Amino acid sequence: MPSLSFPSNPSVWLIAGATASGKSALALSLAEAHNGVVINSDSMQLYAGLPILSAQPDTPETVPHVLYGYVDAAVRSSVTAWREDATRAITAAFAAGQQPIVVGGTGFYLRVLLEGLSPMPDIAPDAAAAWLSAQQETPVAALRTRLLECDPVLAARLYPADRQRHLRGLMVFELTGVPLSVWQEKPGVGLGYPAWRVLLDIPKERLNAQIIARTDAMLERGVLEEVSAFRRHGLSEDYPVTKTLGYKPLCAHLDGTLSLSGAREFLINTTRQYAKRQRTWFRHQYRADCVLEKVQV
User: Fold this and answer.
1) Domains of the chain
2) How many CB atoms neighbour CB 108 within 10 A?
3) What is the pTM of this model?
């Protein structure tokens, strides 16, 4: 286990880093040494159904792991629901005299855990549904033009083709009269516990090698059979769990439209691209108390 300088006061430990960097193994080592509870903060690992593909860790009986695979795949969870569950898990760990260790690569979840969410307007569900129904045929380019006029700050943050977020921004403005970007600037309620933040930022070459090794391990463990069995649930591809890295290329292979080697390469490349985005985000948005570059896992 790496040599770490631990805070003297009781704190929630956060282990962040890119996918395949070794976060789960590090969290397990720390939990074994410090009577810890490992709490998931990966937005895909909270869903049941694809434990191999989403790289959910093996959970030995000696160390409790919580919030892994606990949400049904047919449910659309949210960061708000996860934060409530994570906060309860943290409180329970402290009450039991255990060390809460939050681990994951979804930076937004970690930020929300620490800072809370800005208060959002109370929009009646019927009004929201009616407004969204009326916009079904509106092209995303037209939505963007309207959003640039009423909320240019939000529009500047969005990808031009992101229809869902443009719709949400417009809906909030047109039903409340206040731009969503203004709502987002309002402070949220923090975690309420001190936090000690570790960033696992291993060299790019080693990370790429671990991505390849993990992909091959997934194939050996039966990820194709897992995806095949999962598809029998008949969920449409707009459910969050189907956004798990590798789901679409593996489905394409099962459908006979992509070779196994092609699916493997696709998964490796998309994982590398995702890891690159994660590393950039954590380096600029995550105020780490400790950065580790050489951890043997």
Assistant:
1) 12-115+190-292 (3.40.50.300), 125-185 (1.10.20.140)
2) 12
3) 0.81
